[in-house]
Amino acid sequence: MHSVVAGVCGIVFGAGLAISGMTNPAKVLAFLDVFGRWDPTLAFVMGGALGVTAIGFALARRRASPWLREAFALPTRSDIDARLIGGAALFGVGWGIVGLCPGPALANLSRGSGEIMIFVAAMIAGVVLHRLVIERKP
Amino acid sequence: MTETTFTPVAGLVGGALIGLASAALLLAEGKIAGVSGILGRSFFPAKRDLGWRLAFLAGLPIGAWLATRATADALGFAITDDPLLLVAGGLLVGIGTQLGSGCTSGHGVCGMARGSKRSILATLTFMASGAATVYVMRHVWGAG
């Protein structure tokens, strides 16, 4: 049941990414290119997503638990550390080089494009590298 | 470089769908719809914690495929074909999102929607370093 719900959420999420144009790296780069021919679309995507998600959080706050599980799994940290800022900075550089963040990268696997395969393989290598070297798993 | 047109309505509609999926995952499952977090914890997962993650991740290309077909790929797709840039970008996105505990969805949408100070700072940081990277690549080096 959990997988069915999560799968449907993933489908709607992926459809939203494609409809918003965020699966087009050129559009994302045009948003980040504030000194060039700026395309502010991404701000509208975030605005739309934030507005609806905020309603979700407002509803969630009035509940002790989610519909299908015993407890909400929400982040509890509130400290600002070097990893948060450094990691976000590195992510931004990668985002700015190609114009893809993790969601659109995975959503674009539907295109069967060689470039996407290379990017996703490198991204997963980065994820696994982090887990093995920095978090020292398993 | 590929020029794009400003598409605020498609942006708002697509964004609202992203928000709907995030709100639904939160209310039904109690989970944050952060793609980098869901992906990261799919490797060496906790017990009985893998199925929903893989289902969500598999849904992304399925939803994108359906929407791309339904809209006749109206907003297009253009990406660099330089393998060096693709590998460097992918590695940085992979490592950076794990180190920084989130990406555009986890920090930018879910974290900001719940007013997390960490997420607001992370979002400002990756927006700034992303814009700086594009500035250097396009206006200093003159690359596409």
Report on this model:
The complex is a heterodimer of chains A (138) and B (144). Chain A is an all-alpha fold and 138 residues long. Chain A has one domain (2-134). Chain A contains six helices and no strands. The model of chain A has no long low-confidence stretch (mean pLDDT 96). By secondary structure, chain B is mostly helical. Chain B has one domain. Chain B has six helices and no strands. Chain B has helices at 8-29, 35-40, 51-70, 83-99, 104-113, 117-140. The chains are: A mainly alpha (138), B mainly alpha (144). Chains A and B meet through α1, α2, α3, α4 and α5 of A and α1, α2, α3, α4 and α5 of B.
Structure keywords:
heterodimer, A: 138 residues, mainly alpha, 6 helices, 67% helix, 0% strand, globular, B: 144 residues
Largest sheet of chain A: none
Number of helices of chain B: 6
**In sequence order, what are the helices and strands of chain A, one letter per element?**
HHHHHH
Order of helices and strands of chain B: HHHHHH
- Roughly how much helix do the residues of chain B carry, as a percent range? 55-70%
Largest sheet of chain B: none
Number of domains of chain B: 1
Number of strands of chain A: 0
Helix content of chain A: 55-70%
Shape of chain A: globular
Number of strands of chain B: 0
Rg of chain A (C-alpha, Å): 17 Å
The assigned structural class of chain B equals: mainly alpha
β-sheet strand percentage of chain B: under 5%
CA radius of gyration of chain B is 17 Å
Spatial separation of the terminal alpha carbons of chain A? 28 Å
- Beta-strand percentage of chain A? under 5%
Report the oligomer.
Answer: heterodimer
What is the 3D shape of chain B?
globular
How many H/I helices of chain A? 6
Outline:
The complex is a heterodimer of chains A (138) and B (144). Chain A is mainly alpha-helical. Helix content of chain A is 67%, strand content 0%.
